[in-house]
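F.,

This is the one I mentioned.
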């Protein structure tokens, strides 16, 4: 699944490659997929996107906003899979959930693996979509300060039990983070995934805050994770520290054995010696 760094990378690449292109034909998927969320019929999507010009893309959390001017915004959200640009003359993928052809013969496709939103809004109405409306501050915004993060933890503690992994992956409390990047953040902060947030000491809060910002920025700089693909079908340059491959390597910090557990909707990889 794409997380914030992958969406930021896709948006930057769209601005280099797609911005200014005129749509000849916009089509929804040819492959039935019950977990793709559309808000338009095929006919409607085709009619509304015809002749529109691609504006400046932006990413927020796990959502990508692509203006189709004048008047519309295409929203891609909470998806994984492939979001690809194809130069004129390329071979089209057999299955897709979105297929937009431009006047210059190049085209753009999106194919999601698990689920995902591919929705077209009248400009401005995208802000009211569930999960977009009221989204909390994301880690790349200037407002994501330590003071903000510290208060967020205090608020969550008063609302009930939560673990460090839950803080990073549940309810989009820190929008854009997901199960993949959370592993590296927790390792860098030396915090155990199950560590209750009401038992984080001030140093651990600082460590988590800095690990979130540093990891997100590093993954963005490297063009996304190595296990996801960018707009040009190239894997990202960020090699994960804690994923299934970590099981075959010693802990980069202490040389100990990396462990795996299933916890909160996904596998966790961690070092029991380094992460407390
Ligand atoms: Zn270790």
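My design for it:
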């Amino acid at each position: 699944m794409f997380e914030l760094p992958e969406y930021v990378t896709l948006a930057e690449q769209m601005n280099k490659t797609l911005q200014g292109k005129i749509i000849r034909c916009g089509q929804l998927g040819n492959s039935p997929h019950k977990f793709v969320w559309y808000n338009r019929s095929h006919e409607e999507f085709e009619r509304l996107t015809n002749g529109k010009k691609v504006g400046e893309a932006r990413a927020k959390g796990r959502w990508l906003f692509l203006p189709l001017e004048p008047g519309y915004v295409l929203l891609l959200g909470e998806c994984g899979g492939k979001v690809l640009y194809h130069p004129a003359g390329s071979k089209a993928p057999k299955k897709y959930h979105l297929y937009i052809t431009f006047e210059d013969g190049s085209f753009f496709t999106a194919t999601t693996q698990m689920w995902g939103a591919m929705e077209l809004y009248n400009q401005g109405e995208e802000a009211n979509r569930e999960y977009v409306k009221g989204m909390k501050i994301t880690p790349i915004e200037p407002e994501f300060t330590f003071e903000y993060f510290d208060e967020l933890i205090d608020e969550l503690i008063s609302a009930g039990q939560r673990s460090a992994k839950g803080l990073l992956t549940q309810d989009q409390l820190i929008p854009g983070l997901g199960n993949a990047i959370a592993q590296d953040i927790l390792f860098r902060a030396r915090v155990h995934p199950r560590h209750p947030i009401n038992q984080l000491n001030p140093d651990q809060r600082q460590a988590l805050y800095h690990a979130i910002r540093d990891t997100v920025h590093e993954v963005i700089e490297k063009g996304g994770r190595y296990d996801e693909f960018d707009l040009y079908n190239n894997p990202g340059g960020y090699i994960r520290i804690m994923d299934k491959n970590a099981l075959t390597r010693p802990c980069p910090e202490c040389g100990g054995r990396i462990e795996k557990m299933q916890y909160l909707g996904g596998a966790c990889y961690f070092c029991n010696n380094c992460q407390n």
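The longest strand covers residues 63-69.

Talk soon.
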